[in-house]
Fold each of these.
Amino acid sequence: MRFFCLHMHSLELCETLYAEFGPQHWWPGETPFEIIVGAVLTQNTAWSNVENAIANLKRARLLTPTKLARAPLSKIRAAIKPSGYYNQKALRIKKIAQYLAKNYGDDLTRFLSQPVCSLRHEVESWKGVGPETRDSILLYAAQKPVFVIDAYTVRVAGRMGMTDKRAYRELQAFFESSLPKNPRLFNEFHALLVHLGKNYCRKTKPLCASCPVKTRCRRRIRR
DNA sequence: GGCCAGGTCAAAG
DNA sequence: CTTTGACATGGC
């Protein structure tokens, strides 16, 4: 394992992580719509559970805006059950599907190729889409240069002493201002941070043997 | 059996 | 404006 040093610069950390772990191939989804649905389903839920839910939706042929928009709630609920919170998530993804189907049909090209500000405005008007889900959609479905902040990002940044910021927008500004505004870089870096966090940053476990920072980091991200 | 996972919303303080 | 509780499954 390489040496992940405290107070390392963002780009330096990104390059070190990439050299160590390689490309993460995010977002694991075949279409933008699948990424949008997955972004909602993965809220506070392990990705392995979401994989099952997505597989069920695919098997039921529900993973297009028009199909999901017409599907009965009971069917959606049953399909996404493994991802947890299935009652509210079923309502939310159906509502999103109805919005997309009505305004764009099944081809989301026109939707995704809007300028960031109008796309962001549209996406954040959806119920069930908060800051992280919104930015995941902007970055991973639409390839806009928006840095996604999640619990892992906060933990890793805090533990590595990169910044003491806690609020979502401040953290986002920190990363975006310390990196080239490149969506592919944002994509890979965020995925690598999650990978690092998953494997070396649970609870009070140190990041690695040579970087024994044990500061307890709160999971909650302030708005 | 308890804790945690690629959060969000509404209601209350 | 900040804090709290509800939402729910599956893996370790």
Amino acid sequence: MGKRDTNRDEKRQLIVTTARKLMQVREVSDFSMRTLAEVAGVSSATPYALFGSKQALIAAVMDTDFADFMTALTAEPNQGFDVFFRLVDVTAELFEKNPGYYSTGAQAIQATTDQTLTSHFSLPRHGLFKDLVSDAIQRGEICHQINPDSLALNLGHQFYGWIQAWAKGNITLPDMVARTKYGLGLGLAAVATEASRAQLLEQVVAIQATLPEAGVLKTKPTPNKKQEAVS
Amino acid sequence: MGKRDTNRDEKRQLIVTTARKLMQVREVSDFSMRTLAEVAGVSSATPYALFGSKQALIAAVMDTDFADFMTALTAEPNQGFDVFFRLVDVTAELFEKNPGYYSTGAQAIQATTDQTLTSHFSLPRHGLFKDLVSDAIQRGEICHQINPDSLALNLGHQFYGWIQAWAKGNITLPDMVARTKYGLGLGLAAVATEASRAQLLEQVVAIQATLPEAGVLKTKPTPNKKQEAVS
DNA sequence: AATAAAACTAAAACGTGTTTTAGTTAGCTA
DNA sequence: TAGCTAACTAAAACACGTTTTAGTTTTATT
């Protein structure tokens, strides 16, 4: 690798690092490409030359932490259905440490129409779910008619959806945990073999008791930004 | 209602109608507030005075069709678990008639951070699901420990998520139907009483057979918009 | 009819993401 | 060392959503 490439990589790193800092200061909107360029001491055209778009840049930022994310997820002992629930807990713990960061990232990922970006994140997550499902099938906890791919996709879909709801501020983090566990619990209970099923349903009903009513959604009044004329 | 209000309502109607026309011409981006104002023969400030934001306007547009949507959904005979599956079919049929329109609308609804707008759409849908679940409980098809509110929210969440995936172009319409039915089928099978459960699982497995592999996601190459210098 | 209030307009402005242009720097190669 | 090329810069520009300003019309009230 020549020095040219090295310099480019260093600049990429610099921009990614700066972007991460900006993403962590809570307010999602406090992060424009112009201020990023200014803070990083770089032309505002450079991030576009190096990453292509704001979303691609954010993806690159999150990518650096993604390894940590995956190891945090897979570090858990892998036995029984509880591993799915622990997955949710671990994710929530991670989010709690850096809410602004993950919220910004999740929203950016979801806002993009670039398929490569989304699959870049969805595929590893899907792989993890698929492995967990396959293991459960082999342990005889899930009936063998089930295609790991299809089930994993459904579980991942639910997970992802509630994460997005949290990122948008529609639900709190504990709520996200409960609703995700509820969804995963249902999906698993449906295909669980008789032995595991009863216990799973018991857990689901227990979670259900902690859920707030759906009607109680946070609602703000219509944003009426017209201020009255000051006489 | 005085003439002032009448005029305002007429102007609202005019803008909504024009907006719907623009939304139907397929390309989501072919719809800027400036062109809308121009086509409607109205100042570009007027839609903001009357609706507040682009998203609110789109919500208003979709609102006019929402009644049709709900009647189309509820027109189906309400018996057995099949009603949930028919719900998905009816939605897909509606989407197929006007893909650009519903796709634009769904994306706009999802992009907004305005809670009132989202709940405006999620609440009636949630109500429908809740009613269906309650009915199923009373018919003894779903065990009575289940809280209709919680289950309905989960089913609606899955439904909504796959609709969004379709609106973003991540999956095809038949795929949306299959994956949604798969998800609903699982959720219902989990809580179905013994009698209904076997049949439901059979249907789920049948749907599963039609699902494409998760790995086969549409992927485009990274958007490399740099064109080469023309010598 | 006179006046106040509201609705609407045209036009400019702001802050975005993004692209383009033209010029400069820095590394590589002959 | 000389020259080529990729990388970078500064600055302007574009289109967008949105807001503001100031002026004009329309309606309701007295």
